[in-house]
Design goal:
- The protein contains 13 helices and two strands, in the order αααααβααααβαααα.
- The chain is an all-alpha fold and 311 residues long.
Length: 311
């Protein structure tokens, strides 16, 4: 068997980001940080997709994580970036644990549409709630690192360093989980759920666990995005946000825990360049990119690395 180089690769990528960050432009640091935040959400979607489940409502937990972080700062003036991320992750995980008893019963399109419906309920509530800024949302309190506020020119890099560290730890944890017996059930559930039950494993319990983990990662990404952008609004729970995460998941593929972050970065680059070239038709460029991936790389961009290894 070949040695597993994924942990070492993740550590090297994290070290490279930290080393190059001080010399990169501010817009690049922002783009990388947002890509890491979205990559955390897609990392959870990748786990569900390996089970054959597509969640069209993952923006629900992305938004919950962001609002949990924002409300902590607004009500209690909590600004510690790690505290905010833990709050976002815990809030999303708790809600997913409760909703998971319902969603774990469904499969195929029913799972996707039910998750989408719940996400849109949250969107409707946030739009109608004036105390939370209604459709305009509200600004997030500037975050600090262990009570220390970096200088203005180092704020972006500090947030990026935290995001890179959190992303590496999350990816390593998911990679370790996927190697456990419960994690290895995902392809079996996708292929034949009945046989999984005959083997003595509970497919519903496995789906429930993966759903909670995916929600926790989405909440973590939402809190990170809130501290990076500095503003949150109900659009974070809208169906187009969930569609964006699905787009990145298909673009990246499910072959490795590194793929979601690679896909999120490429998506951000395509979106930025397309909007800069053609502000009115940039969605067409994204659609063409997705079409090209589906036609020529049906297993996502990560399949290119698989082909190279096979060669």
């Amino acid at each position: 068997m070949r040695p597993d180089r994924t942990p070492l690769t993740l550590l090297l990528i994290g070290a490279a980001i930290l080393a190059v960050g001080p010399f990169a432009p501010q817009w690049t640091l922002f783009l990388l940080t947002v890509a890491l935040a979205k990559g955390l959400v897609v990392l959870g979607l990748m786990m569900l997709l390996r089970c054959g489940l597509v969640s069209f409502g993952q923006a629900l937990y992305y938004c919950l994580g962001a609002y949990a972080a924002g409300m902590l700062g607004r009500l209690y003036e909590v600004s510690g970036v790690f505290t905010l991320m833990l709050a976002g992750m815990a809030t999303s995980a708790f809600v997913a644990f409760v909703l998971g008893f319902l969603l774990a019963r469904y499969r195929s399109i029913f799972f996707g549409l039910l998750s989408l419906a719940i996400s849109m309920i949250l969107y409707g509530l946030l739009v109608k709630t004036e105390a939370l800024g209604s459709s305009d949302g509200f600004n997030v309190l500037p975050s600090t690192l262990f009570g220390w506020r970096p200088a203005d020119e180092w704020v972006r890099y500090s947030v990026l360093a935290v995001a890179a560290g959190v992303a590496v730890i999350a990816a390593l944890a998911v990679h370790r989980y996927l190697g456990t017996p419960l994690g290895r059930l995902a392809p079996a559930i996708k292929d034949n759920e009945i046989r999984v039950e005959y083997m003595g494993a509970s497919a519903r319990q496995a789906v429930h666990v993966k759903y909670v983990i995916a929600a926790a990662l989405a909440g973590l990404g939402g809190a990170l995005a809130a501290t990076t952008v500095g503003h949150i609004d109900p659009e974070m729970a809208y169906w187009t946000t969930s569609g964006e995460f699905i787009f990145i998941t298909i673009l990246a593929g499910t072959g490795s825990v590194i793929a979601p972050f690679l896909g999120a970065l490429i998506f951000g680059i395509i979106q930025t360049v397309a909007f800069d070239i053609s502000p009115n038709t940039w969605q067409m460029v994204l659609g063409a990119s997705l079409l090209a991936v589906i036609v020529f790389l049906p297993r996502g961009l990560w399949s290119l690395f698989r082909r190279r290894k096979a060669a």
